[in-house]
Amino acid sequence: MTKYWMRGAVLGAVVAAFAVPALADHHKAVEAALMAPDRPAADKERDGDRKPGEVLAFAGIKPGMTVIDVNSGGGYYTEILSHLVGAKGKVIAHNDQVYYPFVEKDLPGRGYGSRLANVTEVHGMAEPLEQPAESADAAIIVLAYHDYFFHTKNRPNDADIGAVLASIRSALKPGGSFIIIDHVAPAGSGHEAGDKLHRIDPMLVRAEVEAAGFTFDGETDVLRNSADNHTDSPFKEGLRGKTDRFVYKFVKK
């Protein structure tokens, strides 16, 4: 038994020896993306509240990957992801028919396809993604899952969340990661919180994503804030950028 234990210990040490440099390289890549000289100053000013370095270290997104930024909004994360995945990677900046009208005027300044040459835009479509099957290494949706239940003239009812999640899962390669960040709503508040509070119950999100065939792969508390009462609007003066936010990681097995 001792012999097998020693073999296991040696193997573990070897794996760890290789893992530490790889982890260090990943952190360096994330740091370089955040420090990119052409990254807008206004974006960098938001880093303190959004903690993208910690989030992306947890997410495991690396150079060379293809990443879908689902409902990417004005492009804060798209910009960082573009620098992180580099010239050998690709970012799909997506905004659905509800999101796009809110951000359309801001997007030309990002330089997608030119300054950020590895970014492809996909905007104004129905909520389910229309991406080739098994084409992406990761997908990320930041502060936007709750908006599938936000009602506007373009969509007066809830989106079909099952169809949305199925489309994301289809687009991911086996082993691909799905990262979700959102404002925490009270437990049991249901989809209505997305429309009324611009928040979502984390346990509801986890249940829906797991029901779509994903496997939960952990969470980080880097954006948690116990002082948030979970009922105020994330846009409230003094609360914006400081809400209690969950960060979940799922994997397509």
TrEMBL record:
The EC number(s) this enzyme carries: 2.1.1.-
UniProt record, GO biological process: methylation
Signal peptide (residue range): 1-24
Keyword Heme belongs to the record: no
Entry keyword set: Methyltransferase, Signal, Transferase
Alphabetical list of Pfam families matching this protein: PCMT
Gene Ontology MF terms in the entry: methyltransferase activity
Descriptive protein name: Class I SAM-dependent methyltransferase
Organism: Gimibacter soli
Taxonomic lineage from the root: Bacteria, Pseudomonadati, Pseudomonadota, Alphaproteobacteria, Kordiimonadales
